[in-house]
Design goal:
Belongs to the UPRTase family. This is Uracil phosphoribosyltransferase. InterPro entries: PRTase-like, PRTase_dom. The protein is an alpha/beta fold. It has one domain: Rossmann fold. Helix content is about 30%, strand content about 35%. It is built from six helices and 14 strands. Strands 1-11-9-7-4-5-6 form a seven-stranded mixed sheet. Helix 1 runs antiparallel to helix 2. The longest helix has 20 residues. The protein is globular and about 65 Å long. The termini are far apart. It binds 1-O-pyrophosphono-5-O-phosphono-alpha-D-ribofuranose, uracil and magnesium ion. Uracil binds next to helix 6.
C-alpha cells in the first residue's frame, strides 16, 4: 500500500494546512471551508498523476493539437459533514467524475465512548472505477472503514484513494491493515502522532465539521 504524505515536500499546501490548524485563523468559517477546498484541489492535481491518459485531437482556431487527456473513470465519495468542502475542491479539478455521499457520525454513549453510525448512502456503481474517498480527518479510521464497507455494496473498485488532510498514525496503520494492500493509496497532508481520550487527533485541528458548519446540538 502506498502512503503519500504531501507534507514531505515544502509547497504552498503547508500554508493552507497551517491556517486550518491555527486557532487564531480557523474560526473564520468561510476561510476554513475555502482552505479545505484548496487542499482538495491540490490533492486532485496530485492524484491525477496516477490516472491513465491517451492522446486526443483538439481542433483549435488555427489547426489541430494532440493532447493527452485522462481516460480513468472516477467516483469521488465523501463522508458527511466535514468532507463536503474537501469533496468540492477535488471535484473542481475532476469535473468529469461521478459522486457519492455517505453519512457517518459519532453517537456518544457517554463522554468518551461512541459508536459510528452510517445512515445514508447515495452512490453510482463503482465496479472497475477509481474510487476517491475524501474525509479531512482520519482519527481512529472508523468512519473511513465503515464508509468504505458501505461503498462496497455498490461494487468493487479498481483502485481506492483514501484522501485526508490530517491523519493520526493509528488511523494510517488501521487503514493499511484493512484496505486491499495492492489497490489502495493513502494521501494526506500531515500524519499526527496521537489521538486523545475523546478520539480527537493531537495536535490535529479540532472538530472539522463544527469549524466548517458550526456546532451541532
Ligand atoms: O476516524 P474517526 O475516529 O472515525 O474520526 C474521523 C471522523 O470525524 C469527523 O467527522 P464527525 O464524526 O466529527 O462528523 P461531522 O463531519 O459531522 O462533524 C471526520 O470528518 C471523520 O469523518
Ligand atoms: O480530531 C478529530 C477527530 C474527529 N473529528 C474531527 O473533526 N477531528
Ligand atoms: Mg465533527
Amino acid at each position: 500500500m502506498k502512503i503519500i504524505n504531501l507534507n514531505d515536500n515544502n509547497t504552498i499546501l503547508n500554508q493552507f494546512v497551517s491556517e486550518v490548524r491555527n486557532v487564531e485563523v480557523q474560526n473564520d468559517r468561510l476561510r476554513f471551508r475555502r482552505n479545505l477546498e484548496r487542499i482538495g484541489e491540490i490533492m486532485a492535481y496530485e492524484i491525477s498523476k496516477t490516472f491513465t491518459y491517451s492522446p486526443k485531437q483538439v481542433t483549435t482556431p488555427l489547426g489541430t493539437a494532440t493532447v493527452n487527456t485522462p481516460d480513468t473513470e472516477v467516483v469521488i465519495s465523501t463522508i458527511l459533514r466535514a468532507g463536503l468542502p474537501f469533496h468540492q475542491g477535488v471535484l473542481r479539478y475532476l469535473d468529469y467524475a461521478e459522486n457519492a455521499f455517505v453519512s457517518a457520525y459519532r453517537k456518544y454513549k457517554d463522554t468518551l465512548k461512541f459508536d459510528i453510525h452510517i445512515e445514508y448512502l447515495a452512490s453510482p456503481r463503482i465496479d472497475d472505477k477509481v474510487l476517491i474517498i475524501t474525509d479531512p480527518m482520519l482519527a481512529t479510521g472508523g468512519s473511513m472503514e465503515l464508509s468504505y464497507q458501505a461503498m462496497l455494496t455498490k461494487g468493487k473498485p479498481a483502485h481506492i484513494h483514501v484522501v485526508s488532510i490530517i491523519a493520526s498514525q493509528a488511523a494510517v496503520d488501521h487503514i493499511a491493515s484493512i484496505f486491499p494492500e495492492d489497490r489502495t493509496t493513502i494521501w494526506c497532508a500531515a500524519i499526527d502522532p496521537e489521538i486523545d481520550e475523546h478520539s480527537y487527533i493531537v495536535p490535529g485541528l479540532g472538530d472539522a465539521g463544527d469549524l466548517a458548519y458550526g456546532e451541532k446540538e
